[in-house]
């Protein structure tokens, strides 16, 4: 492989893969998208991410990079001359990283559990946790955006990408779980519309309808295997 | 005047990371010891989301989460050795392995120490699997950060190197075995023998006393069930 060829191993429904694609689009990087088949892991995936065996993996020349937020930071730092993804100020960078980590470590497990948990206390707790999380992010948006349309201000930045990867899934969870998540956060609601319509996002954001079908399948499969 | 404060707990590996980073960069700071059973209003104000240590306060602005604080320190203070390399790919590797230490190594190792029976055994297997990956990563290198100086991953894995002896002696759990992880053991020796690292560890007797108290509390709480 040529030393500057860029490949992305992924799958179109994955919120993590979406993050990488948006970052590559922002920097206008040409890349080959290698779609992993659902339920299987290619030899290339196992070879390039032997530790976690997960997508996305960015393969730049001979170098594989795994973990979506690490990939986004790599893209920002390697293609430094393109539009900046991380804020330039160290403190704002730390804030963006803080909330991105919060989304992955605290918010997403709750959001996921809304669909996966059995009815009752667990589901209620998950919903409450997810709503509280979005309220915190609504607040963070007001602080970070500085009057702009995005967390990054006038243009999409790291935190937009971190949360935006889940935008389609938020809509799916609301529909499948018959719950309101982002709907109660007016600023995030508007942010979501702006994000979805952005040039770097609109061609790679999966259609909610298609995600819904995938979600139904995954939820049924997960619940069935949990019963054995 | 630039003002740096660190809210920490003396035996917290995560607090320790930030102390090491600040010392590496020669940054003067005020250290504030927190009592986790009685968290200060300041801590709760500066880290309302997680209510945890460490929190770094710089010019009145709080930063939480140890690895994020480490990157902030590296971004902000140019003096002293770099915590992260300059090359984007090497930076991504450093971030990957630091996250791996946090997500895969430390939780499994903690469980292997404190949970007995089947859960403890399962955790020990997971810890060994995780350490195996680290073993392969350190092969041929003096430190995770390179041959010259310690970096993000070394600091993140400080607890693995520095508490191995105490945990083996007091809890009978030996993680860094020479037969299983020769390279990791060599790294731990090199790392622990850095004067910089030696000078910045909690006092050994205090740590032993602390672990003995924790072990006793754990055994007595189990026998009252």
In short:
The complex is a heterodimer of chains A (228) and B (225). With 228 residues, chain A is of the alpha+beta class. Chain A is 57% helix and 7% strand.
> What strand line-up does the widest sheet of chain A have?
2-1-3-4
Secondary-structure element pattern of chain A, one letter each: EHEHEEHHHHHHH
Do you know the CATH architecture of the largest domain in chain B?
Answer: Up-down Bundle
Radius of gyration of chain B: 18 Å
Instruction: Compute the number of strand runs of chain B.
Output: 4
Q: How many DSSP helices of chain B? A: 11
CATH topology of the largest domain in chain B: Glutathione S-transferase Yfyf (Class Pi), Chain A, domain 2
Low-confidence stretches of chain A: none
Helix content of chain B: 55-70%
Helix fraction of chain A?
55-70%
What is the 3D form of chain A? globular
**What is the element string of chain B, with H for helices and E for strands?**
EHEHEEHHHHHHHHH
What is the subunit organization of this protein?
heterodimer
Uncertain segments of chain B: none
Which protein chains make the most extensive interface, counting residues with beta carbons within 8 Å of the other chain's beta carbons? A-B, 21 and 21 residues
For the record, give the distance between the C-alpha atoms at the N and C termini of chain B, rounded to a whole number: 54 Å
* Biggest sheet character of chain A: 4 strands, mixed
Tell the overall outline of chain B. Answer: globular
Binned strand content of chain A: 5-15%
